[in-house]
Amino acid sequence: MNLGRLKIGLILLLSLSGFAISVQLALGKKKDKHPTANPQMDEQKQAVHALNRLTFGPRPGDVDHVLAIGVDKWIDQQLHPEKINDDALDARLSPFRTLRMDTREIVQNFPSEQMIKAVADGKQSLPSDPLKRAVYQAQLERYQDKEDRKQQTAVAGADKVADDERTRRQQERAAADEKIEELLDLPTDQRMKAVLEMSPEDRRALTGALQGDKRDEFMEGMNPRQRETVEALDHPQQVVNNELVEGKLLRAICSNRQLQEVMTDFWFNHFNVFIGKGADRYLLTSYERDVIRPRALGKFEDLLVATAQSPAMLFYLDNWLSVGPNSDVANGIPKQANNQSRRRIRNKAQTSQSKGKRNGLNENYGRELMELHTLGVNGGYTQQDVTEVARVFTGWTLKQPKQGGGFTFEERTHEPGDKIVLGHRIKPKGEKEGFEVLHILARNPATAKFICTKLAMRFVSDQPPQPLVDRMAQTFLKKDGNIREVLKTMLDSPEFWAPNAYRAKVKTPLEFVVSAVRASGAEVTDAMPIARQLQNMGMQLYGMQPPTGYSMKADAWVNSSALLGRMNFALALTSGKVKGVQVNQFTEQKDPQQALAVLENSLLAGDVSKQTHDVISARLQDSKISHRKLDDPARPPNTSLIAGLLLGSPEFQRR
Amino acid sequence: MSITRRVFLKNSSLAVVGTAAIPAFLTRAAYAAESLGAKNKRLVVIFQRGAADGLNIVVPHHERAYYAMRPSINIPRNAVFDLDGFFGLHPSLSPFQPLWKQRHLAIVHAVGSPDPTRSHFDAQDFMESGTPGIKATEDGWLNRSLHSLPQPASADAFRAIALGPSLPRILSGSEPAVAINNINDFGVGGNNPKASPNANSFEAMYEHSVDSVLHGTGQETFDAVKMLRSADPSKYKPAAAADYPGGHFGDSLKQLAQLIKANLGVQVAFTDIGGWDHHVNEGSTQGQIANVLHEFSQSIAAFWTDLGDLAEDTVVVTMSEFGRTARENGNRGTDHGHANVMFVMGGPVKGGKVYGRWPGLDQSQLYEGRDLAVTTDFRQVLGEAVYNHLGNKDLNQVFPGFDNQPGKFLKYLG
To answer: Could you give the dihedral angle defined by the CA atoms of residues A639, A644, A646 and A650, in that order, rounded to the nearest 10 degrees?
Structure first.
């Protein structure tokens, strides 16, 4: 991939230093490969820079690794993630079964309220598998409770019912606490068996009372499926949500395919879907895994089409409900109508006031498709274009989304007739009109510019140089929206390697938290506590409600609350106070000043200001750090506190 | 109304000396009002993010077209709380009714931005920058509203605050402003009574950092942490009658009331509430919009109660980026529209009245044939609060490029 970059280097070198050196370069003898394009970034800095930008931050040893194989070669590897072995990550993710399930399986194993209602109404039978069955029974129990309460409220009044409910809960709770202690004395396999043998009522009470540390203790030694079942007894959809969140964090922290994960995060954020909206609670696992990640370095148009047809997006931006105002469904024309009756009914429908429940356009997707996914807000479209695009996408809908059904095209809700989008006349051809519009949008120069600006903002700087964006946009248009090629153009550019780009980007909370965990070489056994920290910092994973996604720019993330959150996280992490994250001894250096020097190198590649160094150095006298008392001069210093101060320093907030 | 309250305050500030029976918070409020003078005027801005449906919030129940255009999601005339025979409040806004009756609550209808955008992001940006159509503006109008005001004598870390995990656009700019997510853990190692050595280390690092972005924020942060520590707002529990609902918005206002009561010198404050983008199944007297309106009004009413006499010097303004289509869409929801409604409440507000000119909902009266038209620029409403309440007379600086003559104010502040 670095031919382009080499070329720049070569041309400049040729003019400056003669042919001999360039031949040496072409032969692959590395040593200061890009001296003219970046007079001040030496090879060590290049390696740190590449790691800071293309990964979620260097781990211990990463800089040496990149230097050993060469920056160019390492970048080339990252651009081809399929060739990178990631077995260790896969093993790490193997307990999370939902990450491998399709949506239908997820919905069946971790039923939504609609599924439970279907069983309660006798439309579906209880599963025979004992673990699944227990989960269903627990939810049925809860559902019936709710229905009963509704009826009682109607008769006895809300206050009375609430009081009774409280009393009953308290009694149940006390009994459940007792039962938990009893079960904890049993060996693990018998414990699960005992749970399955309980009555559904008792089981529900038990799982309701099973929280926090007690739950961890209860699930100790269980296999993944048993653990999921225990969690699902209380809240099935939470299992799906938590596994998705844990999967994302573990990938960011542990995957060797770092650029792929960075790009997956980038595209998910670009095509943002909020996990809290209805069916999207269980549609995001497949969305990220099947739609986004495989195309993260592929063709933009493929990504655009895949998101447009994804159940997650169709649901999130309401397109699945959009109906052409002149479609058969809107006009009440039955499925088997002939042309004559069709005409008669349509004429009648136009005069009548009352139409069905679904009888009109929903512009939500049409607008965000152009504003956020492709052209950008100043990309030259009008309100009329929004309406026309909405007409084009009528009929792009879902089969039973709440049961995990997928995309379908429904001719009967599709708006008939020509549509004009951005001056193009779209002839009637059903589902294919949508593909035509996506094709037009994907190739529009405004789209190229918008996407490339965002990419440069993620990888280069908050205000990316316009010439760089223009060159990336040219590649985008010339190479048919090939994202890998666009990234290559960026990575070959002098702007990317300019000294003023070094550590110029302020980390987002996700980037900060993950880079801190990576830098500290910590072992993560439970990523949920990290996820909760992110929520406190204003960056809940999958939790961005509006379709804009999270900002990548410093001004969104640099503020009082967030800075304090970062300092506190740094201190908690290094002192082992973040649950589920184990840190090792940071260095065995006994001399505090030496220990500081070691940590400055391992955590920040030595990029520590004099101010930060002096502050920490002065603190080394503090007995909290030095651990030294008159009678105990040999105790090693508190390196975790030094590490915490470094990770909370201004320098570590940038990448 | 406001005169009698002010008289009460003045009298009580004299009377409290040696009167043990008067609760401490009252004496403090009374003294504060006297000693700090104009500095104690506060403006609280609340953003309803996601484009609230103004037509279902303050309902034009006398408009036949309203009912014709919204067959399934209209608010029936017999369900609204009638305001003036033409407009009525959505029933979920019942916590606002006493405020209206006491004339502390005013409404401006058909208000909005002249910019035609129907993009949430752009429209919010314009309403926060205060310069519709101009993207290059770097700071927010609420930050600029402090520009020409006299500098407070003491530390002013809490002069401008946002409740939430990040500093919003509206408060970004050259005046120091802090974002607080939770006052109980606002500090290094929690909000301890004494600064920890770690906090001092971080402060020293950020104080002298050459990193201009982080240095500035770091300094504001540590100033605020110190002030908060000495004021200890946890002493100020919500008033007994202040019934805050659960959730982010109610929590934010509860904490804001604590900061105001702790006398930290809050002049402008901001918080927001999401969940208004009802493209599908908006609901009517029940449902999505009813739920979020209840949270919205219950939180604000609790805040009002909680502030007690301090409400006298407080003006609260609500805004949302644009309204929604006059007609319901195909999914019993509404799409992005244009003009909207704003609430203004506070001690000095001449409430009990709907301000602004009503443009009507007939086809010919709609903006682009689909939305409520804007007849009052949102900057006119905000300008009046900045000019008359905060006392900043330089509106050209706060809302550059907008002709904001005091003579054209709606005069909801008298």
So the answer is: -170
A174: number of Cβ within 10 Å: 12
Residue B282: give the domain boundaries: 2-9+41-183+243-408
Q: How far is A566 from chain B (nearest CA, A)?
A: 9
What is the 3-class SS of A558-621, one letter each residue?
CCHHHHHHHHHHHHHHHCCCCCCEECCCCCCCCCHHHHHHHHHHHHHCCCCCHHHHHHHHHHCC
Q: B229 lies in a domain?
A: no
Last residue of a domain, one of A89, A108, A137: A89
ipTM given for this complex: 0.85
Same domain, A85 and A57: yes
* B119 touching A (Cβ < 8 Å): yes
Return d(Cα B156, Cα B160) in angstroms, integer.
8
Please state, rounded to an integer, the average pLDDT across all residues of chain A.
88
User: What is the distance between the alpha carbons of residues B389 and B8, in angstroms, rounded to a whole number?
Assistant: 20
Contacts B181 to A, Cβ<8 Å: 536, 538, 561, 565
Boundary residue ending a domain (A214, A242, A270): A242
Q: State how many domains chain B has.
A: 1
The H or E element containing residue B202 is: helix B197-207
Angle at B369 between CA B364 and CA B370, to 5 degrees: 125
Residue A403: inside a domain, yes or no? yes
**Gap between the terminal Cα atoms of chain B:** 12
At B1 the three-state DSSP class reads coil
Q: How far apart are CA B27 and CA A389, in angstroms?
A: 62
Using a CB-CB distance cutoff of 8 angstroms, which residues of chain A are in contact with residue B335? 362-364
- Residue B413 belongs to some domain of the structure: no
Pairing verdict, β B87-89 and B58-60: antiparallel
- Distance separating alpha carbons of residues A459 and A511, to the nearest angstrom: 12
CA-angle at B142, arms to B139 and B144, nearest 5°? 55
Query: For residues B374 and B223, what is the distance between their CA atoms, to the nearest angstrom?
Result: 42
Res. A628 pLDDT band, cuts 50 70 90: low
Question: pLDDT digit string (tens) for B356-378?
Answer: 999 999 999 999 999 999 999 99
**CB-based contacts of B131, cutoff 8 Å, min separation 6:** B137, B141, B399, B400, B401
Domain co-membership, A432 together with A575: no
Mean of the pLDDT values across residues A322-339?
87
Residue A600's CB is within 10 A of a number of other CB atoms, namely 20
Would you state the structure tokens that stand for residue B373, as one six-digit string? Answer: 């038209």
B208 lies within 8 A of chain A by CB: yes
* Distance in angstroms (rounded) separating the CA atoms of residues B72 and A279: 24
Residues A20 and A135 in one domain: no
Distance from CA of B266 to the nearest CA of A (A): 16
| Number of domains observed in the structure of chain A | 4
Cα dihedral value A184, A185, A186, A187, nearest 10 = 90
Which CATH number is B252's domain given?
A: 3.40.720
Give backbone dihedrals phi and psi of A396, rounded to 5 degrees, phi first.
-80, 100
By mean pLDDT, which of A483-487, B58-62, B173-177, B383-387 is the weakest? B173-177
Separation of alpha carbons B8 and B22, rounded Å = 13
Cα A574 to Cα A641: distance, rounded to the nearest angstrom: 7
Is B195 a domain residue? no
In a domain? residue B209: no
Residue A523 makes CB contacts below 8 A (sequence gap 6+) with: A581, A582, A583, A584
Domain limits for position A168: 99-242
pLDDT tens-place string over residues B39-98: 589 999 999 999 999 999 999 999 999 999 999 999 999 999 999 999 999 999 999 999
Helix (H) or strand (E) holding A219, with range, is helix A212-219
Q: For residue B376, give how far its alpha carbon lies from the nearest alpha carbon of chain A (Å).
A: 23
The two beta strands, A396-398 and A407-409, are antiparallel
